[in-house]
Structures are given as structure tokens and as C-alpha cells.
Amino acid sequence: MHVILTENAAKRVHAVIAKRPCFGLRLAVKTSGCSGMAYAIEFADTAEHDDVRFESHGVTLLVDPKSLVYLSGTEIDFVRQGLNEGFKFNNPNVKNECGCGNSFAI
Predict the structure, then answer these.
(1) 103, pLDDT greater than 70
(2) CA distance linking residue 22 with residue 20, whole number of Å
(3) Which is higher by pLDDT, 98 or 2?
(4) Which helix (H) or strand (E) segment is 67 a member of?
């Protein structure tokens, strides 16, 4: 089981962390959206006792065990498309996504 950042995503995280220091990024899956689940990403100032830790390009990623089942094997990229930019989750476990791309199903 693993979760990784692309080099481009890690560069973006390092740039943000330089302005807002933190322990790492917390990744999770929440019940939401028309397909049932949505990704959650936030800065973490500390690790929880049951977090699973991953290191990717110098960034600490924290995932709770419940979310890891859905995120295992995921690669997170940072993409720019026209005027839009953001993190893109390339998750091999996804079976279906909603039309707007904000939620998914496994």
C-alpha cells in the first residue's frame, strides 16, 4: 500500500509549506458528492496515532487507515489547465466518477 506525489505536486506543496509551515499533508476520503466519495486534502500540524505515513519527494503524507483502503496506489499530481489549477488524484481503485469530477465510486 502506498500513496505518492509526482515531482510537480511536491514542488507545489513545498512552495505552499514555505509560507505556511506544517508537519505534512493529510489525505482522506469522505462520503460526499453524486458518486458517493470525495477526496479531502489539508495541512496537518501533527500526526494522529493511527495515521499511516508516506514520504514522497520530501513531503510527509498522512492517511488514516479507513481512507487508505480507498487511496492505496494513488498518485497525486498538480496540474494546470487553462486558468484552472489543482491537485489531480490518479487512483487505480476508482470504478466510476461523476460528470463534474468532484466525486468517485469504488
Answers:
(1) no
(2) 6
(3) 2
(4) helix 65-71
